[in-house]
Amino acid sequence: MPKVTVDESTCVGCGLCEQNCPNVFEVQSDGIAHVKDFSDPACDLKEMVEQCPVDAIKVE
Ligand code: SF4
Q1: What is the pLDDT of residues 5-16, one digit of tens each?
Q2: For atom 6 of ligand 1, which residue has the closest CA?
Q3: Which of 6, 8, 38, 48 shows the smallest number of beta carbons within 10 Å?
Q4: Does residue 16's CB lie within 6 angstroms of at least one atom of ligand 1?
Q5: Distance CA 22, CA 9 (A)
Q6: How far apart are CA 18 and CA 34, in angstroms?
Q7: What whole-number distance in Å separates Cα of residue 44 and Cα of residue 12?
């Protein structure tokens, strides 16, 4: 199971990851995306890593 993290100092809260994987990411009131659950098979995490405009998403 991959571990997913969002670098809070880099994320700009654009919401792209939340739009694509709402079960995994949530932009909270602090304006930063947080990881809720990274076990959603419907989410292509690699694609999210590539699409994040500031490279804030890391998958280990
Ligand atoms: S796509 Fe990247 S910058 Fe945008 S909310 Fe998600 S982690 Fe933050």
Answers
A1: 999 999 999 999
A2: 17
A3: 8
A4: yes
A5: 21
A6: 9
A7: 20
Q: What integer pLDDT is reported at residue 39 of this predicted model?
A: 84
Identify which of 9, 25, 45, 47 to mutate to test ligand 1's pocket (most ligand atoms within 8 A of the CB): 25
The domain of 20 spans 4-59
pLDDT tens digits for range 27-56 = 999 999 999 988 889 999 999 999 999 999
Rg over CA atoms, the chain: 10
pTM above 0.90, yes or no: yes
- The total domain count for the chain is 1
Q: For the domain that residue 17 is a member of, what is the CATH number?
A: 3.30.70.20
